[in-house]
Every structure is written in structure tokens, then in C-alpha cells.
Request: fold
Amino acid sequence: MGSSPVIGSIVDFFELFIVQKIFLCYDIYHMITLKSVTKKYSADSTGLSGVDLHIENGEFVSIVGQSGTGKTTMIKLLIAEEKATSGVIEVGGWDITRISNSDIPLLRRQIGVIFQDFKLLPKKTVAENVAFALEVAGEKRSRIKQVVPRVLDIVGLVHKLDRYPHQLSGGEQQRVAMARSLVHRPKILLADEPTGNLDSINTQEIIDILKKINEFGTTILLVTHNREVVNQLKRRVVTLYDGRIISDENKGKYRL
Amino acid sequence: MFSGFFRIIKFSFQEIIRNMSLSVMTVLILILMLLSINTLMVVKVLTDESVAAVKKQIDVSIYFNPEATLDEIQEIRDYVSAFPEVEKETFFNSEEVFANFKKSYANNPDVLSSLDEIGTNPLGPTLIIKTRDPKDYTKIITALSVPEYENIIEAKTFGDTQTAIDRIHVITTNVQKFTYFLTILFAVIAFIIIFNTIRVAIYTQRTEIGIKRLVGATNWFIQGPYIVESFLFSIISVGLTYLLVDFFLKFLDLYISVIFEKNNLLSNYLSQNLVSIIGIEFGVVFLLTIVSSGLAMRRYLRT
Ligand SMILES: Nc1ncnc2c1ncn2[C@@H]1O[C@H](COP(=O)(O)OP(=O)(O)OP(=O)(O)O)[C@@H](O)[C@H]1O
Ligand SMILES: [Mg+2]
Reply:
């Protein structure tokens, strides 16, 4: 779907990271591990109950399930936005179950996240939004100047650097969010219904970019309601129901 | 972390400029608060000045018996001037008192003709006493109300002056109480307004705070710009208020100079206390904005 020029620049981008600050001691086999993880929001509201899940380095996993079955809860636990009620959560070999508040920013700089509602800063331009993630991590100015155009080139928005989010289409906004999630060259990319607000053409573009990022070694967790996307990917599919995993198939299909 | 500090300053300037209407609103409210505090300052200076003026016009008159000897009068004069509360005592002998009396009734032929009928001067010498504080008159009057002076002193302006003095006390203490009450009221109102303005601003920015956390910003990066903004808003509002107040005081001084016969009363007060006034105002505004934004932001900074 006309996204090949975009993909070409990914190789360029990864060459940028020859010397990499690696915070996580990456476990080759278990990039993400959940051991009987339960999340209770309150006595009568359960997000996840007793979930066991292992995701290996380089996998592309789709998480599917009806509304309210705990998909977003799982993402929130992985970025430490919520704390598990019981169980153990490891990301790249790092036990983040009892992560301290001061370590949370470090964790989030290692994991890329994108959401259905893009979550861009409305008063910052495209370039500033992307640069922000580098600035708060204390990256040097020279490096920021180098990385920002490169990641925006990957998502094909290098010519809209100075636009504000409200001057972009939904698909373009999501691509900015993807560019931002890539600035630290994350080993893990979490995507919570990234195409939920997009039409089929924009959806395909986002999925193509995700596939290419995955090909270069980033582990991807994609939460989606989109049957076509899941069936086209032909990758691992985990189905949640009522906070539990009810099926986990390699080369799975969307079956709900 | 040095570059982090410059980034925070950059972010705060960006936020001030890109949220221009909110920035202008905040500064306006701060200026209104500072203006009301300055109004109270003017009220206080004017109250003090008028109390002093009224006090200056109050005195106690001691009317001596026309038969009192000079020695007796001198003894009382010495006794009175020994009081530390007494600022000044002025003596008029019988002739002076008579001349003054005739002068003040020059337009009243009835009084003058009845004086002529008497033929002699019926008035005794008078001592006019001025104390530093009106409330000390009671002390002087009590001290002179002893039996040994009963034959020397014919009258003391006791009754009327006493109630006048009491009333001035009631008025000045009430004005002072009212001024304090107003000061506290204005401070509370300003705090509520500013707290709410910032709370509303942060409420609308709570998604932004969430986004910043999401991309790995530490609390320092999220709060820092607000602190710098508070600092800049404080400087701007105190500066603009100073210019406004300076202008208005010069204007008011024109009218005040007519009443109190003092030039630049308010402007002089401002320039003499400039450092403490500006310092206190800046401190209050900075603290107020920091505390209110801190309170408003606290719940969004937790994970
Ligand atoms: N902050 C919260 N407080 C209380 N209950 C919550 C909270 N967040 C989620 N829940 C509950 O946890 C359960 C799982 O919610 P979650 O958001 O993970 O669902 P989801 O699978 O992402 O749904 P959707 O497909 O609609 O996004 C739901 O029953 C929800 O009501
Ligand atoms: Mg969800």
C-alpha cells in the first residue's frame, strides 16, 4: 500500500544506534513475562486474574478480546501505570512488579507505547513532540537534531515538522506518536488499539510500519479489535476473556 | 542536568506564549490582588496621618482661679512638665486670656457689652497642655484632681474633651480592625481565585501531564516549568503593579497635599519602604502561585 519509501529509511534509522545505552539486561528468550498476574481495581472490578504469559524476543503478538476483558490493563501494568495486585511482571529480565516511582521514567524510556488517542502534546509541534521524549531523557542537542528527522522520515512525515497536532489527520498523528515511541530504539513496542480511530488505508500504513519495526528486532504487542489485521498478520494471537487467557495460538486467527 | 535546567526554562517560555490568554488572565488576577493590598496600604497611611492630625488638635485647658498666686501656678507648671507624656505646655496670663476672649467674641456685641459692665477682668490665667497621646490626658487630669489644687484650679476641660478623646479612640481602633479584616479578606479571596485559576488550568492540562509521564519525563521536568512560570508571573505582576501604584499615588498626592498640608505623602512612603514592599509582595505572590499550583498538581504527579 504505497509505504515502501517509508520502510527504506528504517535501516538508516537503526544504524544511528551503534552505541546504545542499554538499561534493561535483555533476556533473549523472555522479553515479557507475566506470572499469575492479577489486577483488582476494587473489590468488584477486576482487570486481570491469574494471567501467565511469556513473550520472546522479536515476537509480534496480537492481543484480542471483547471490551472490558483486561487488554488495556495488561498494557498499563507493563508500563507501570498500574501496579499488580499479585503475581510477578518482568520486562527484559527486569522485575518491575514493585518498581519504585523514581525508576518508572527509566522504564518508560525503554518501552515504546502508542495508543488509540495518539497522546500528542497539543501545544507542541510535530518535531517538538518527538524531541520532547529525548529532551526529558537528557539527550544531547546534537543527537536530538539527528534523531528527530530520522524517526519522522521513517513514518513519512519529515515534511510536516512544524505542524501542530490539530493540523494533521488522524493517521498522521498516529505516525507522529510512532516516531516518538521509536526515539530510544525500544526493544519492546506496546500498541493499544493504534488503529482504532483510523480508516483502512491509514490502518494498513500503521501495520506495515509495525511489521517492519518488528523485522528489525523489536518485540511488538498489538492490542486490536481489527479482524482483518489479525488474520493478515498470521502471527501469535492471545485471546483474553474476563481477565483470563482463553486461547494462545501461534499463527492464530481472530475468532470471537 | 545543566541542559535539563535550560530545557525547563525553554518549556516554560513556550507554555507562557502558547497559552497566552491564560497567562494574561493569571497576571491580571495577580495584579488585582496586589492592587487591593496596595489600597490597604494607602488606607493605613492615611488613617495614621489623620489620627496624628486629630491628636495634634486636642489639648487640655487648665483654668486657674484669678486669685491664684504666681508661685502656685509655677508649681503646677513644673509638676505638669515633669510628666514624660507631656509634649508641650503653654501658659497665658489673665491679660492674654482676656484679649483672646475679646478677640474671639469681637462679632458679638452682647458679650462685649456685658464684659464692659463688669469693668474688671473676670478671667484667670490658663495653661494649655499637649500630650504625645490623647489617652494620656486622663492621667494629667487625674493627677491635677487632688484636694491641694482645688482652690488654685477653677476648671479643667474635663467632660467634653474626655468624650471626644474616647470617641477618637473608638474610631481609630475600629478603623484599624476594619483594615486588618479587609487585608485578610482580600488575601483569602485572592488565594481562592488563584488556586482555582491554576487548578482549572492544570485540570485541562492533566492529559498533558499524563502524556509527559508516559514518555518518561520525571516530576522535575513536569513541575519545573510551572515553578519557572510562577516566578516569571510574580516578577511581571509585581513590576506592573509597581508602575500602576506609583502613577496613582502621584495623582492622589495632589489631593492629599491639600488636606494634610504635606507634599508627596504617599509617594514618599512608597519610596521609603520600596524594598520591603516589593520584597513582601513578590514573596507573597510567588508563594501563592507555587503553593496553589503545587496543591493543584499533586494528585496528577502520582503514578
Ligand atoms: N481505573 C479503573 N478502575 C476500576 N476499574 C477499572 C479501571 N480500569 C479498568 N477497569 C475495569 O477493568 C476491566 C478491564 O478493563 P480494560 O480497560 O483492561 O479493558 P479492555 O480489554 O482494554 O477493554 P476495551 O477493549 O474496551 O478497551 C473492566 O471491567 C474495567 O471496568
Ligand atoms: Mg482498552
